[in-house]
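User: Please predict the structure of the protein below. I'd like the answer in C-alpha cell form so I can feed it into my own downstream comparison script.

Assistant: Understood. Taking the following sequence of 296 residues as input:
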Amino acid sequence: MRRKSSPSAKPELFRNDNMSIYVGRIACQDLAGLVHQITGVLFRAAVNVTENHEFVDHVAGRFFMRTQFEGQADVQKLRTELLKLLPAGAQCDIRELKPRDLLVFASREPHCLGDLLLRHSTREMSANILAVVSPNEDCRHLVERFEIPFHLVPVNALQRPDHERKVLEIVGKYKADYLVLARYMRILTSDFISRFPERIINIHHSFLPAFIGRDPYQQAYGRGVKIIGATSHFVTEQLDEGPIITQDTIAVDHTVSAEQMAKRGQDVEKLVLARGLELVLEDRIMIDGNRTVIFS
C-alpha cells in the first residue's frame, strides 16, 4: 500500500535554527484535484513543502497523503482551512515534527531494550526515553548504566487489574507520547489499551499463531521451519493482531540449532522494532482500519 511521489532525505529533527518542521496527514474519500487544493493551502500559508507522498486505495476509493513542510505555521488555522475543502468525514492531522517522549516496558529479555537504550544514548533515535517499567529486576542494571529511571512493578500475587493500576500510576507521572513494549511479557487488559489508542507499539516473533506460549524457537526448531522473523505493530484489544508497522524475515536451515535460531530471531526483533519505531516517530504511518499506509 505504498506510493512515493517525491524522494527526500530523512528529516533533521534536531535543527539549530528557528525553522520548525511539520507533518500533515490526510485521509479522505478520493476526489480529483485534492493534491492541488491541499498544497495550495500550504502555499498561501507561506510554508515550504519539503516532502510529499500520496496513495489512492482504488478498491476503497480512499485518498491518503503525508506532507512535510517547514516554516512558522498556525497549525489549528491550517487544519481548519484544509477541512473546509476536504470531503466530509476527512481525517486531518498536523503536528510539529520533533523528538517524542517514550516509556519503555520490558520483562526479562534484554535484547530489544538494550538496542533502544543504545540508539537513544547515541541519538540515533529521534526520541527521549523517559523511563523503563518492568515486572522483573533482570534489566535494572542495564537500564541504570544508561542513567535512565527504572521502575519495578512486581506481579507477586496481584490480579492483572491491580498490577496495571500500579503501572498506570507510573505512566501518569511521565505523560509519554508512546508506550513501547520491548518484549514485555504481560498481556494488557482492554481497559489499559483503550487509554492509549494508537500509542502502544509492540514487537513479537512472526511464528504466531503457529507456535504459542513458551519457547517458540524450540517449537519452530522441532517443526523444521525454514524462515524466522518478527513483526512490530500497534497494540489493540485483539492480542498481537493490531495494525502491522514493519516485518522482516531471515532464512534458516537444518544446520541451525534452536539456540542459534533464537539468537538470530532476537536480532531480527531488534531491527524490526527499531525500524517500526522510527516510522512512528516520523509520523509516516496512517492507520486504515486494521491496515497501515506507510510513507517511507
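That's the full C-alpha cell string. Confidence is low (pLDDT under 50) at residues 1-16.
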